[in-house]
Amino acid sequence: MASRLLRNSYTGSLRAASTAASTTVRPAAVSAVHQFSARRQFSASTSKMASSFYDNWEPEGPTVKTEIPGPKAKEAIKELHEVFDTRSLNMLTDYQKSVGNYIADPDGNVLLDVYAQIASIPIGYNNPVLHDAALSSAMVNGIINRPALGNFPPTDWASTLKTGILKVAPKGLDQVFTAMAGSDANETAYKAAFMWRRQKERGGAHVDFTVEEMESAMVNQVPAGSKPLSILSFKTGFHGRLFGSLSTTRSKPIHKLDIPAFDWPQATFPALKYPLEQHAEENAAAEKAALDEVEHLITSYHVPPAAVVVEPIQSEGGDNHASPAFFRGLRAITRKHDVLLIVDEVQTGVGATGKFWAHDHWDLQDPPDMVTFSKKAQTAGYYFGNPELRPNKPYRQFNTWMGDPARALLFKAIIGEIERLGLVEHTAKVGDYLYGKLEALGEKYPGQFANLRGKGQGTFIAFDNPRRDEFLARAKKFGVNIGGSGQSAVRLRPMLIFQEKHADILVDALEKVVKSFK
Amino acid sequence: MASRLLRNSYTGSLRAASTAASTTVRPAAVSAVHQFSARRQFSASTSKMASSFYDNWEPEGPTVKTEIPGPKAKEAIKELHEVFDTRSLNMLTDYQKSVGNYIADPDGNVLLDVYAQIASIPIGYNNPVLHDAALSSAMVNGIINRPALGNFPPTDWASTLKTGILKVAPKGLDQVFTAMAGSDANETAYKAAFMWRRQKERGGAHVDFTVEEMESAMVNQVPAGSKPLSILSFKTGFHGRLFGSLSTTRSKPIHKLDIPAFDWPQATFPALKYPLEQHAEENAAAEKAALDEVEHLITSYHVPPAAVVVEPIQSEGGDNHASPAFFRGLRAITRKHDVLLIVDEVQTGVGATGKFWAHDHWDLQDPPDMVTFSKKAQTAGYYFGNPELRPNKPYRQFNTWMGDPARALLFKAIIGEIERLGLVEHTAKVGDYLYGKLEALGEKYPGQFANLRGKGQGTFIAFDNPRRDEFLARAKKFGVNIGGSGQSAVRLRPMLIFQEKHADILVDALEKVVKSFK
Predict the structure, then answer these.
(1) For A137-419, CATH number?
(2) In angstroms, how far apart are the furthest CA atoms of chain B?
(3) What are the pLDDT digits (tens) for A39-61?
(4) Which ipTM was obtained for this model?
(5) Contact predicate A442/A461, CB 8 Å
(6) Which residue in B155, B161, B194 is closest to A92 by CB distance?
């Protein structure tokens, strides 16, 4: 009842936003695209979405009324900057007016958003299903009675996990350690790896720590005669920005300058050439060389790795892909040398690649040891299966909050909606559609959509543009909010409710950007 | 309207919980204590609370129906353990039935909670004011549209900060970097310290990074000829459990074993003797020796400190106090050597010591450089004032979420309630009352309430007991949930709505525990 009441006023504000948009002159081409899109046959998944509210809740297209930032945003940014660093600000956002795939600002600009809060909004702004979930008594309880989950878990915590986070656990992994964000999800996974490795060296879970081990730990050292351990990561990889995760992050100097880091090894990530079919042999050679380097580092680095961490697609580093065969090889090498494999699915997870987990594309017979998640899950942690990855004593892997039941409930609601609407399969199809259109655009404008990548990977698509930063800035003028990554990549990170009609609007805007460069 | 509807059903459930409690036979002494308490004159702050709902919403006292865990809890723990490590579980909790200062479990046990989710529940379970805040449209918006705050802050983010987090900013600090929990609040503060220090070495914000600096950062090294830097922390201190924060944590081996740590220095925290007035000279000497050691480490450690981090009261480490003079001395030494002072108020902040920030007790003329917060704030981050602590370029201090507006709104509501009811002053008074009663108890049972500490520090009180772990376990039988810390400390961490009547119940239960030892 209560939530229905609030929903009414919410629908009212949606309507207001939509009216505001429709009274604004939109680029003619966008309207044309929309009419074209409306004539298309609905695919199965599209019709599932059409049968719900998803086809009626959004504005029909973007509205650009002012420069971005406009006068109202400029004033607010100035005020904000006094107390909060705004130099990385991209767009001041009016979240009350943002709807579905559209992000709004205080000056009345409404952009198609294919950046989605750095790839982390899963099923649209102001999604009514999440709105209801937010008003549920369970959610309210999670907000106002935040538990120390390791000490005082809620009576229904098992059920929350089993019907939520664990319902979508990667194959072979049936347990979870919950965390707050991607960086601490990775760091707690690293901690589990170190404890697991030392336990093996010690001879098992039953072997107690020596006095020397305890004393050396208290002075931040390893016991005399023992070697320090490391986590091996890949060049241009990104795993977070706290001290342990940043030691495995190798994306850009600006992330790492002046911050102390561990002496941990890095391997080369294969630099694939595009189009893939024209460079099959070179690419296979690059992947083999990378795997050889990994094996060499595992067996010879002076700080031996307890684990290798890898992203299925290096996202912050520029959307660098490798083949399923590469990852199967990585699994085989790590298994061979008894080194753990941690797959960082913080950005790739939860459906955007057309599979729920990007590593589902690899067809692994032997699952990763740990898989970390965050972003579109709206909560974080690492999955694991091997019971030996539970440290041998309580309080070794522990902190006050250890996650957030409120955010876990939100993920549960997100999963429900993904399943109800088949959004993973939907995203696979829409991704194919979008990829085809971008391929055509690339042929029309040589060099402007270079190294198009992400075929068969849902909407997790990227390309390089020689004037990337200007490209992103101009895209806003044509009604689209897009992010970059690496040195020159334009990365598309639409939500899971992104449809072919949105792809049409996006492609239309991208073409305008390129035309404006001439 | 909507929230009022939900409030009705909420009040109903409160009533149900309270009825359940009153139909249970409670220890006679508890009832007697309650009557005694009811006869007392209300102090000004107590009457403020009495005039609100705070006097009527809770059960009259604890109810212990079964062993803890009871049969229902045991079953649920077994199920939970299959997917989530429960070895550090203290008490499975029914958060729907927990009210105010009372924590409930699925077997109908209702305990007075002076542990409060490891010192992090500020104004009671199921506080109706927070309940309303959770149902506000701003909160719902924050939950379902989680922003990447560094890139896409909400239009009203400045206002949320100024009327919330920054409204209670420590004196001299007017800016904030928001975070997710205590550990990343500390680690981002450390990062700010390292960047600040290197910037000074470089000659200022305008000096660009050299190629060598960028290249060495990418291989986790400092440039040739440059020394690595450190954070100096204190023995038995606790600052979190991620890799950087754990490198400064020196509480117990179980927190640190097998986890790689940086070669950073630790100084001795003065071990004060109690009662303080009988050991004034020795204690002053211990503090002087500690300060000398800090200065020696700052000037001579082979990995020079960019900052010193310290807790106003070492909490996890066993409630170790030092005098205001010690902290003023620490500020003077760090200032003298141009080393930053980071005050970790994760556990001490937000009122429990009878001041909003524990370092308000120090009467500093020169404020700390950064103050970190979490726990009772229900959100986290670090305050700072010096504009040079903003790194010289954007994206140096950055991550996807950079905090959580929903939790920031909750803190704002908490602050509102703290101010409305004068809960900081209230806690100072109730703390004095509780301390007096414990002092009397200590005289009656020599050795059982050893090293009683926290006089004049609100309810942030602790004592040592020779059978501490058993003491905590037995306290549950007598209706009280209490936490320990360090080797032998019983630490009291009541909420800010803890009143004299609760102190009476607590003291009564503590006496029963001690009697049961005979």
Answers:
(1) 3.40.640.10
(2) 75
(3) 333 344 455 665 567 778 899 99
(4) 0.92
(5) no
(6) B155
